[in-house]
C-alpha cells in the first residue's frame, strides 16, 4: 500500500496546530501509520516541518490567486484573502512559530513571493487612498500574519467562534489601516 503523503501532511498539520510540541510518534499515530513509516518519508521533525512549509506556501499562494488581489478596492481584496486563507490558518499559525523557517539564507523563496504580493496589495490601497500612509505596507503585511495566527489559535482553543474568524480579522486590520480624514498623532 502506497503512503498517502497528502493525508500524512494534513494529519501532521492538524495535530501540530493543536499541539506544536507533538512528537514524531504522536504525528505517526495521528496519521494512522507507524513511526518507522513516517521516518522513511520524513527523516525527522525538520524534514516534516519543511514539507509542511511547502504545503503552507502552496495553500497561501492558492488563496492569493482565488482572492483576486488586483480586482476592485484593496479593502475588499483583503476581505476575500482572509476568507480564502481561513482553511489554512491553523497550519500558518504553526509555521509562523517555526523560527528556523525564517532564518538565514535557506529561507524558502515562497515566503518572499507571498510577502511581495501582500505588500503590493497594501501599497495599492495606500495609493488609492483607502489605507493610511503612515503605516508601511510591510508592517500591514506583518500585522495580517499576526492576526491570522492569533485568530487560528483563538478558534482552535474555542475562545472565538470559527464563523467569526474572517469578520474579526478583517475588521480589526482594516479598522486600523483605513485612512480617515482626521490625521492621527504619532507617539514620540
Protein architecture, described:
By secondary structure, this protein is mainly alpha-helical. The protein is 65% helix and 0% strand. The chain contains 9 helices and no strands. The protein has helices at residues 5-18, 24-31, 35-41, 45-66, 74-85, 89-96, 109-127, 137-156, 165-177. The radius of gyration is 18 Å and the shape is elongated. The termini are far apart.
Name the features.
mainly alpha, 188 residues, single chain
Write the layout of secondary structure elements.
Layout: H1 5-18, H2 24-31, H3 35-41, H4 45-66, H5 74-85, H6 89-96, H7 109-127, H8 137-156, H9 165-177
Helix pairs in contact: 1-2, 1-4, 1-6, 2-3, 4-5, 4-7, 5-7, 5-9, 6-8, 7-8, 8-9
Amino acid at each position: 500500500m502506497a503512503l498517502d503523503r497528502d493525508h500524512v501532511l494534513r494529519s501532521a498539520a492538524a495535530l501540530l496546530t493543536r499541539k506544536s510540541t507533538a512528537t514524531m510518534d504522536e504525528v505517526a499515530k495521528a496519521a494512522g501509520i507507524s513511526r518507522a513509516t513516517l521516518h522513511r518519508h520524513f527523516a525527522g521533525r525538520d524534514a516534516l516541518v519543511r514539507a509542511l512549509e511547502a504545503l503552507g506556501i502552496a495553500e497561501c499562494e492558492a488563496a492569493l490567486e482565488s482572492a483576486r488581489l488586483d480586482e476592485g478596492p484593496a479593502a475588499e481584496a483583503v476581505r476575500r484573502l482572509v476568507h480564502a486563507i481561513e482553511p489554512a490558518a491553523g497550519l500558518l499559525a504553526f509555521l509562523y512559530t517555526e523560527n528556523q523557517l525564517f532564518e538565514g539564507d535557506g529561507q524558502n523563496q515562497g515566503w518572499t513571493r507571498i510577502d511581495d504580493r501582500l505588500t503590493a496589495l497594501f501599497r495599492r490601497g495606500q495609493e488609492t487612498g483607502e489605507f493610511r500612509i503612515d503605516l508601511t505596507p510591510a508592517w500591514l503585511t506583518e500585522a495580517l500574519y499576526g492576526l491570522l495566527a492569533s485568530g487560528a489559535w483563538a478558534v482552535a482553543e474555542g475562545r472565538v467562534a470559527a464563523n467569526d474568524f474572517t469578520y474579526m480579522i478583517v475588521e480589526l486590520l482594516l479598522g486600523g489601516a483605513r485612512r480617515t480624514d482626521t490625521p492621527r498623532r504619532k507617539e514620540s
